[in-house]
Design goal:
single chain, 467 residues, alpha/beta, Rossmann fold, Serine Threonine Protein Phosphatase 5, Tetratricopeptide repeat, DNA Cyclobutane Dipyrimidine Photolyase, subunit A, domain 3, 6-stranded mixed sheet, 21 helices, 48% helix, DNA_photolyase_N, Photolyase_Class-2
Amino acid sequence: MAIQPARIRVLNDQPPRDRSEYVLYLMQQAMRVPFNPALELAIEEANRLNLPLLVCFGLLDGANGFPEANARHYAFLLQGLADAAAALDKRGIAFLVRRGTPAEVAIDLSEEAALLVLDRGYLAIQKRWYGEIEQKATCRVVQVEGDVVVPVENASTKHEYAARTLRPKLQKLWDDFLEPLAPREIDHPADGLIARLKRKDGLDVSDPDRLLATLTLDTTVGPVKRFRGGHNEASRRLTRFLKDAFAGYGAGRNKPEAGAASHMSPYLHFGHISPVEIALAIRAAKDADRDDRSAYLEELIVRRELAMNHVFHTRGYDDYGRAVPDWARKTLAEHTDDERPTLYSEQELAEGKTHDHYWNVAMREMRETGYMHNQLRMYWGKKILEWSPSPEEAFARTLRLNNRYFLDGRDANSFTNVAWIFGLHDRPWKTRKIFGSVRYQSENSLRKFDAKGYERAVTRLCEAEKN
């Protein structure tokens, strides 16, 4: 159960510092204790150096808050941190949450560390944080990949055209990375470490609601009851999914009313659960056939890691001119002046005030519960393209709405899925007005599932948010 060497990168040439107080781990992307290779490597190093382990987290709010994050996202994040804090304490590991950027917090605390361990994320802001740490930390810095099954550079060294080009590369490698990860024993518990260091600026994450109320945030989009953050909740949901809904997943996954979704995406987004842990559970699931397993692993590994490949190799993945392929921008530009029978403002879209009843239902689910089934997300996005004055404005609107309301917004999957609406990872189709040769989706796609059943389910979910 060793950590695969391909997951580990040494970012500087500094040797571990002598006369240090601890080994430091910046828990920023992988906000969990179980199945966290960065944490387990940090424990191994702490044991080797005869030191306790300190885990830290940099919490942003106010003017320096995480871009586009609001109270909905922060509530879920803080619930996950409370879960992690309790699990770390049980293992004898100190945890310090401080206000500041992850880079600021890690660089400051690294002054007393023998070694700094980082996990890994692929967004531009995360790359900036890690780059700043690499430049300014005065101790040895090691980074450990725990957010994907196959490390991005191992899977492919270029921007992949589509899932079909990345899939065989992943399938060739993923067995080497789908291995259990046993928790390491702590040789030197960190009892009283923070007090001894006289660190008095730590935030108490044991009461997420109380801490949330002290932060300066956009509160116009509030927390949801439908999802609670943390590994414990993610694990509970996964167990229930495997028991009650996984059999028949291959056939039911595209039917929003069927209840076949695992709802793991918010937990993967915040690093509250490992994709390796999920994949191993899927492989071990009883009463599920090969098609169900293949369909789920396609979504979990191939599609998700295609998104990681896209943001890793695309500078400006949130920009229409860079994220959308040339052929798609060309054909959309050729049809920019096509008559659009219906146009809506962004506010009308956000409030679900369109002529399309089931689009409004999907928007209500998104706005009030923080989630929308993938089958509806495709239709939802294509209609925004159809109802906006230009493809550039449609792209910006779709991304803003996506990032504002979805719990799993603002990550590699979101940026990639929005760009897919405009032709990314797709091919030219039959030419039509407005869309050119970019794939179109009509109201007829709603006939593929029980739309009325979906509406009833959304109504129940939204009513539960009020109680």
